[in-house]
TrEMBL record:
<dbReference type="InterPro" id="IPR000408">
    <property type="entry name" value="Reg_chr_condens"/>
</dbReference>
<dbReference type="GO" id="GO:0008283">
    <property type="term" value="P:cell population proliferation"/>
</dbReference>
<feature type="repeat" description="RCC1">
    <location>
        <begin position="118"/>
        <end position="170"/>
    </location>
</feature>
<feature type="repeat" description="RCC1">
    <location>
        <begin position="276"/>
        <end position="327"/>
    </location>
</feature>
<feature type="repeat" description="RCC1">
    <location>
        <begin position="224"/>
        <end position="275"/>
    </location>
</feature>
<dbReference type="InterPro" id="IPR009091">
    <property type="entry name" value="RCC1/BLIP-II"/>
</dbReference>
<dbReference type="GO" id="GO:0001889">
    <property type="term" value="P:liver development"/>
</dbReference>
<dbReference type="InterPro" id="IPR011333">
    <property type="entry name" value="SKP1/BTB/POZ_sf"/>
</dbReference>
<dbReference type="GO" id="GO:0001669">
    <property type="term" value="C:acrosomal vesicle"/>
</dbReference>
<dbReference type="InterPro" id="IPR051625">
    <property type="entry name" value="Signaling_Regulatory_Domain"/>
</dbReference>
<feature type="repeat" description="RCC1">
    <location>
        <begin position="171"/>
        <end position="223"/>
    </location>
</feature>
<dbReference type="GO" id="GO:0048536">
    <property type="term" value="P:spleen development"/>
</dbReference>
<dbReference type="Pfam" id="PF25390">
    <property type="entry name" value="WD40_RLD"/>
</dbReference>
<dbReference type="GO" id="GO:0048565">
    <property type="term" value="P:digestive tract development"/>
</dbReference>
<keyword id="KW-0677">Repeat</keyword>
<dbReference type="InterPro" id="IPR058923">
    <property type="entry name" value="RCC1-like_dom"/>
</dbReference>
<protein>
    <submittedName>
        <fullName>RCC1 and BTB domain containing protein 2</fullName>
    </submittedName>
</protein>
């Protein structure tokens, strides 16, 4: 689900927790519609989406992989085959053998979901062809949408008020539905009742993230650029104008800024950069841009949320509310919050952005498809995590810097090629290790149990050395991610040096761009003063080529 959200945690010397997939507990009871469910039913919920013009419809999946719906059923949006409202959860049997990967909804409402197999199903309001089934008849039951998608695996879906976007595993975007302002991206303003690929500027691009405002569409490509199309009357496309855009157009004002995520409100846009900064543009009558005033902005404007980095942004096409979460776990909200106009990011007591929309958005909907983790049952992975460094069950000890780390031979052999060979005929129950430090080697062994690392960026450099030595490519990526998350002016040069040393080219480019963006402060640090001569020479040459020294 939102596992792919960018993580930015820590600074120099701070411990950083990086993992490529994680779920968290969510209190679905904060959405009023869930008061219709019993406590027993709530405990079974594993995924949920609250939608509708008043937040009065809900779809959820249970621990048994059953799908239930509840609420007013406007336009048949519950998919039950009728338009009868229901105060009791009803099972959606037509999707009984499907597992939902992602889901979005429109204003009608209409619903678009993708299964874990990459198939697309739609139902609900269809006056503008937003279901993509070739008709304009409301869909009372889920319909499998295969036109132009039959050989594609869909990995993300997004809905505007009356149009739909999907993203495929090969980075292509398909769109359909209402097109009065060009939001389908076809080059015309004719409605489109079946999926067609959005091309133009996106023809040879690999898209990694999509979002929809009320009548506009957004795509982030792998190079960090943002492409926009559709309605622009409030400047929500960020192009410096208010003219609609019938085909994708790059947001030129973000030149040199690498965007990782985009989120759209009703008529405003938020983006999150790889350095954990947020930019906003578009409608601002409720302060939803977080700029301290209520003036619309047609160019990207920075949103200042304390001095912490942002790891998550949240907005929803049905609301004028914005939210963000920092690496320190603080959740901020701004815009329309329970009738108040909050023009600057306001620190809340919440632990997740979802709660902002449950308690303060109008209507009280979910801005994304929620995933809820059970807190009682231990999975195999969770059980293994608990056994790391447990002397009671271990059959192997590593002696590093005079300290023991306890492990299990069979797990190490299963998880790591190096141990598969080194432990094959080894009868010893103690292995002495002198090549790496205790924190680094302990982090490596813990990674084999947990798939995650928890280190300062400086220690992650040592782990990067180990990962390179043992040819653990996934661990290498996690180390690079942790170093990126912890970069600051003081350690930027040392991290750049490490990236060069270990031939981590993506990390090297990131560190170099960070140094250029903070050049004045970086050049005054002790790290810069003590920089290796050859590295300094190459740095100055490369910086000159990108125009860092121009007046």
């Amino acid at each position: 689900m939102e596992e792919e959200l960018p993580l930015f945690c820590g600074g120099s010397g701070k411990s950083v927790h990086a993992t490529l997939s994680s779920l968290k507990m969510l209190d679905v009871g904060k959405w009023p519609i869930f008061s219709l469910c019993s406590e027993e039913e709530l405990q079974l919920i594993r995924q949920a989406c609250v939608f509708g013009s008043a937040g009065n419809e809900v779809l959820y999946t249970t621990v048994n992989d059953e799908i239930f719906v509840l609420g007013t059923n406007c336009s048949g949006c519950l998919g039950l085959g009728d338009v009868q409202s229901t105060l009791e959860p009803r099972r959606l049997d037509s999707l009984s053998d499907k597992k939902i990967a992602c889901l979005s909804y429109g204003s009608g409402p209409h619903v678009v979901l993708a299964t874990t197999e990459g198939e697309v199903f739609t139902w609900g309001h269809n006056a503008y062809g937003q279901l993509g089934n070739g008709t304009i008849n409301h869909g009372l039951v889920p319909s499998h949408i295969s036109t132009n998608l039959s050989n594609k695996q869909v990995i993300e879906v997004a809905c505007g008020s009356y149009h739909s976007l999907v993203l495929t595993s090969d980075g292509e975007v398909f769109a359909w539905g209402y097109n009065n302002s060009g939001q389908v991206g076809s080059g015309s303003t004719a409605n489109q009742a079946i999926p067609r690929r959005v091309t133009g500027c996106l023809q040879n691009k690999v898209v990694v993230n999509i979002a929809c405002g009320q009548m506009c569409s957004m795509a982030v490509v792998d190079a960090g650029e943002v492409y926009v199309w559709g309605y622009n009357g409030n400047g929500q496309l960020g192009l410096g104008s208010s003219g609609n855009q019938p085909t994708p157009c790059r947001v030129a004002a973000l030149q040199g800024i690498r965007v990782q995520r985009v989120a759209c409100g009703y008529a405003h846009t938020l983006v999150l950069t790889d350095e954990g900064q947020v930019y906003a543009w578009g409608a601002n009558s409720y302060g939803q841009l977080g700029t301290g005033n209520k003036s619309n902005q047609s160019y990207p404007s920075p949103v200042v949320v304390e001095k912490d980095r942002i790891i998550e942004i949240a907005a929803c096409h049905s609301a004028h509310t914005s939210a963000a979460k920092t690496q320190g776990g603080h959740v901020y909200m701004w815009g329309q919050c329970r009738g108040q106009s909050v023009v600057l990011p306001h620190l809340t007591h919440f632990s997740c952005t979802d709660d902002v929309f449950a308690c303060f958005a109008t209507p009280a909907v979910t801005w994304r498809f929620l995933s809820v983790e059970p807190d009682d049952h231990l999975t195999v992975a969770e059980s293994l995590k608990r056994e790391f460094d447990n002397p009671d069950t271990a059959d192997l000890k590593f002696l590093v810097d005079g300290k023991y780390i306890y492990a299990h031979k069979v797990l190490l052999k299963i998880r790591c090629e190096h141990f598969r060979s080194s432990l094959e005929d080894n009868e010893d129950d103690i292995v002495e290790m002198s090549e790496f430090s205790y924190p680094v080697y302990r982090a490596f062994l813990e990674y084999l149990y947990t798939d995650s690392i928890s280190l300062s960026p400086e220690e992650a450099v040592g782990l990067l050395d180990l990962a390179t030595f043992y040819r653990e490519n996934r661990l290498k990526k996690l180390c690079q991610q942790t170093i990126k998350q912890g970069i600051c002016e003081e350690n930027a040069i040392s991290l750049l040096s490490a990236a060069v040393k270990y031939d981590a080219q993506d990390l090297e480019e990131f560190c170099f761009r960070f140094c250029i963006n903070h050049l004045t402060v970086v050049t005054q640090t002790s790290g810069f003063a003590e920089m290796d001569h050859d590295l300094l020479k190459n740095f100055i040459s490369k910086a000159s080529r990108v125009g860092a020294f121009k007046n």
